[in-house]
Design brief:
With 537 residues, the chain is an alpha+beta fold. It folds into 3 domains: 35-146, Jelly Rolls (Sandwich); 154-375, Rhopdopsin 7-helix transmembrane proteins, CATH 1.20.1070; 399-531, Alpha-Beta Plaits. The protein has 14 helices and 17 strands. The protein has helices at residues 2-26, 152-190, 195-214, 217-222, 225-247, 257-280, 288-308, 315-339, 351-388, 399-411, 426-433, 435-452, 472-484, 514-531; strands at residues 27-28, 35-36, 41-45, 48-53, 67-73, 82-88, 91-97, 100-105, 114-120, 128-135, 148-151, 346-347, 416-424, 458-460, 465-471, 487-491, 494-506. A 6-stranded antiparallel β-sheet has the order 4-3-5-10-7-8, with no helix packed on it. Strands 14-15-13-17-16 form a 5-stranded antiparallel β-sheet, with helices on both faces. Strand 3 and strand 4 form a beta hairpin. Helix 1 (2-26) packs parallel to helix 8 (315-339), helix 3 packs antiparallel against helix 9 (351-388) and helix 5 (225-247) runs antiparallel to helix 6 (257-280).
Amino acid sequence: MKNKRVVGLILSILAGIIFLILLLLFVKGENQKSSILNTGYIIEHDGEIVENVRFNDYIFDANYGDEFEITRIMPNAKKDNMYFSFISYFARVRVYLNDDLIYSYGNGDDAYSGTHYIGIPNGYQNKKLRISIRAVADKAFVDLEPPRFDTEYKVKTDAVHKNMLVFQISITLIIIGIVLLILSIYSSVVQGKMIKLVFLALLCICIGSWSLAYTRTIQFISGNMHFNTILEYISVYFVGVALLGFYFDFPIKKSSKILSIAFAFNCVFFIAALIIMFIDDKLLALLVTPFHINAAITLFILLSNASSKLKNGKLLDKITIIGISLVCICGLIDLGMFYNYNGGVSIIYPLFPVASFIYLVLLMVGYINEMSQLNAESVKRKLLMKLAYTDTLTGLNNRSKFNIDCDKYCKNKSNKSLIVFDLNGLKRVNDNFGHLKGDELLKIFSAKLCRYFDREDCYRVGGDEFFIMTNLAELNRVMNKFTDDEIFLNVCNESVKITASFGFSGLREFSYDFEKTIKAADEKMYSMKFKTNNCRE
């Protein structure tokens, strides 16, 4: 218990230090690589004109069909071959310099979310830049970041620099997720079901994919806004299913009711998102607010569930509290920066993907710790089972194991036969040469049994009594070789021949009544003893 508390304290301190480092590293001032065009805009919407407005101060409350005309006078910069970029959400975009169309995206309602990189013709100085945006979905966008303006190299380098850390984390998460998925499939074949590992793998892949789409890295690499948009929504909507699936205990009756309800609701939510995507993928944006509410409830449920189990001292519960708290704090900071972007002090990297990465790494540590404990307990149980059903002297199965196996064979109507062996002369060896020589005799005979029969079919049920359960065909094939194979015990430089009487009978012969089967085999064994002039000792 003391060690677990120390580990929990170390993890808490580590998470806190990492979080402080994130804030110190990621919070930057106005030294952006590309200039931000944030002031001097004239924005027209629905007949209303707002002049000399800061771009980030204007609320673009856009529903389907809403159009915005955004104009400003281009700066009197001395550079040529300039670019500017800005982000739009489910919007058709047209960009004009004076009245000349220089950029066009979207045809009709076929438009998605992404970053637009727009080249500006030389001679742009003091000309009017006009951006026409038309929403092609309800709740298409509320706030937009101000356009960035500089050379093509600096604009695109800024985008790469801004998303490089998230890109590296995302790729790492996806690779980890794929490796975990392969391991889970392999484990399910070799060791049984590993459902938790599957959900952990899917969680890594989903968060990694969402981070790449959220930062527009997929679009930047492929140029496909449609795929980037769909991946962003679908991957994040599945996160709740994967996260709760990891904490969910299968079968259902082992898990808490509240987790069961939350897991079922997230599954329904994701299925609904898939159906909506096939109907009209632009409607996915309408699920953002319900998703945020659902995510908050889901995280609260997980925190409550972990808090209620803290008294058990499990590392995974402590990690849940630390990780989810970190994710919530970073998520709130990202939301605050998104809705209050001012072009000055900002976070150059989104904190949420980084916090998710830390949380997932901690989850893997907790999962490995939990699995190692479960494996240790499983090994301990198997060892105890082995001791309970194994004869310590010979290593063969004991009478308890025979009773269990024989009952199973009878229930399954197995075509098994029983051979009963009884050693001849064990008492004489014990009396004349000591019990150690008697034990050696038992071991030699046990080794002989294992040479002709599977060890799992061999049982030592008494002092000098051995049972074998084997198939009838195997019985006829083996017994002649078995009796011809003579074995000897070395006593005082003399070899003493070891012999045994035996009898056999089949389960089917006695309608799978194993007591009658044993009695019949015993009678045949004693008959053999009588014929060879050996009496029972």
